[in-house]
Amino acid sequence: MIDIIFSTKDIASQQIFRQIITNYVFYETNETFDGNPILRMNNIRLITTNRELIYSDHLNELNSDLIIFASRHKSESGRPSLLVHCTGNWLDKADFGGNPREISVSSGSAMKIALIELFKQRKILNLNEFDVNLEVTHHGPTNLKAPLLFVELGSTPKDWENIYGALAVANAIMKTALSNKLYKTYIGVGGPHYATKFSELVKEPNLDFAVSHIIPKYALDFIDKKSIKMCIEKTKEKIEGFVFDWKGMNSQQKEKIISILNELNYPYFKTKEIKQKLI
Questions:
Q1: In this structure, are residues 273 and 246 in contact, taking their beta carbons and an 8 Å threshold?
Q2: 53: DSSP letter
Q3: 32, β-bridge pairs
Q4: What is the pLDDT of residue 195?
Q5: Would you call 207 exposed, middle or buried from its count of C-beta atoms within 10 A (0-12, 13-18, 19+)?
Q6: Within 13 A of 202's CA, how many CA atoms are on the CB side?
Q7: pLDDT per residue over 51-99, tens digit each?
């Protein structure tokens, strides 16, 4: 069962919900979640929670195979954005949901499908002012058993109510929910919060390349062997290797991560190397 999660506390989430039920045929079931009706189309359910999505650590009872969160995104820049990421906390704190030093189960294939569709929708819907990007792994929830991803509409209240922005996210979510395509999956290492170098690779539909978790530069000083193994274990697909944003890491960080990967016997590549390898 594929579950798409919305929040009554999230303006963008509710706008995305309206776009899905307007453009796709769902029927109301006799089931509820958090007191809200569950809608269904074949093996896809629309689930509404009364919690903020980042604190929705009560979804295991749904027995999902994949969870897609329809969410708002907020940033200091206020740049209109369409974003995809998985969740987790790399550090000894969890200020925005989940547990410290815990990451969720991720599906690189699902994130690739969503990202490609967001790029397509930006063009189709003439959303030229919107950035489309992957974000690194961050925030909660982290304890869910099913693979999950956030597909987000940002970054201001005006953007959250943008009908066409919400439609772009709705279509990307539905494309992901309706697809079972699998891609070779890697773990990303290094770089800033908005993972542009990884996005440039993942968005290529003909490149058999996806990333699941992305560990940003700001977390690398706190990463150890246990963290790396957790990335491997908490990815739905088999991990083919690790890809480095080479300039987005300092020399000490590179040495540490390479040492761990050598010990674990996993290959690693620079972003420019992996594209040459896979073409």
A1: no
A2: G
A3: 37
A4: 97
A5: middle
A6: 36
A7: 999 999 999 999 999 999 999 999 878 899 999 999 999 999 999 999 9
The span from the first CA to the last CA of the chain, in angstroms, equals 34
Amino acid in the structure at residue 142: T
Q: For residue 157, with 0-12 CB atoms within 10 Å meaning exposed, 13-18 middle and 19 or more buried, which class applies?
A: exposed
Q: Which residues contact 194 (CB under 8 A, 6 or more apart)?
A: 131, 133, 134, 135
The sign of the dihedral angle between the CA atoms of 270, 250, 248, 93 is positive
| Category of 28 on φ-ψ map: left (φ > 0), alpha (ψ -120 to 50) or beta | beta
Q: Whole-angstrom Cα distance, residue 238 to residue 180? A: 15
Helix (H, G, I), strand (E, B) or coil at 6: strand
pTM more than 0.85: yes
- In CATH, the number for domain 2-278 is 3.40.630.50
- Measured CA to CA in angstroms, residue 36 lies from 47, 61, 180 at distances of 8, 15, 28
Strand partners, 269: 243
Q: Where are the domains of the chain?
A: 2-278
